[in-house]
Amino acid sequence: MNERQGQSLKVPALKRKRPGKMPNNTDQNDEDKDRQFVTALARGLEILRAFKPGDGGLGNQELAERTNLPKPTISRLTHTLTKLDYLTLDDNTGLYQLGPSVLSLGYSFLSNLDIRARARPLMQQMANDVDAAISLGTRDRLEMLYLETCRGDGALTLRLDVGSRLPIAETAMGRAFLAALPADEREYLMDHIKRKDPGRHIRVKDGVDQAVEDIATYGFTFSLADWHKDVHAVGVPVIMPDRSAVFALNCGGPSFLLSREKLETDLGPRLVRLAENLTMGSQSIRVVASNT
Questions:
Q1: Which domains does the chain have, with CATH numbers?
Q2: Rounded to the nearest 5 degrees, what angle is found at the Cα of 194, between the Cα atoms of 158 and 47?
Q3: What is the pTM of this model?
Q4: Of 87, 196, 232, 267, which cross-links 81 as Cys (Cβ 3.0–4.6 Å)?
């Protein structure tokens, strides 16, 4: 049994706020429910969100299918977004790609994240020490969004970079994030996962419930081939000192290199210490001996 066994993670209550709306954000009745809600703006943003890494270009028909918006609406919105440089149109193929204005927004977001700047040298040092991949992320709807990622020189892992998205309930990073939330906020998100895909809800709920226990026992949680059959990983929540935001760290790699024992006795405790250093010794993440 390692030194973390039998310890618990003391997580103070977060500032209460309802998680952001889940998809679809563009329901026709939204404006009736919230008079401040601008449906046209939301629909335009849904089009930008429809683009995924690796998309060579999307036409109006495919955008309509991905957003569940009428094709005439898509045509007007893509025309407007192209005029504003949020999309570019290839006249030869009729396909759209994200434009430079989107990159400007993304750069502004990342450059204003103080935690990212503080995390990178700590993450790179650990990645070099353990020859694995270390990433920092936060929630975007029902996914985790990579904000920073570092790799050791010889690390063998999936090539996931800044901007990559992972499912929230099946990955070590996502489970660590969910486990750090107050129970009512966690249940709110799990309810939306159930509504989106009822068939897999029981399996993913079991994984999240186990993550809550893992955080209490070890200070970190696991994903052992749950998301990808060849990947093992550990995850740790990172709660800001003012308790206003939650992030999560993960460390992962090929399952044949990272056994559960190695994750439990080496990489997991290292990741907890990284999170502690990242929050500058604050009480936002604090592993203490359990009184039980």
A1: 7-21+113-289 (3.30.450.40), 38-105 (1.10.10.10)
A2: 65
A3: 0.73
A4: 87
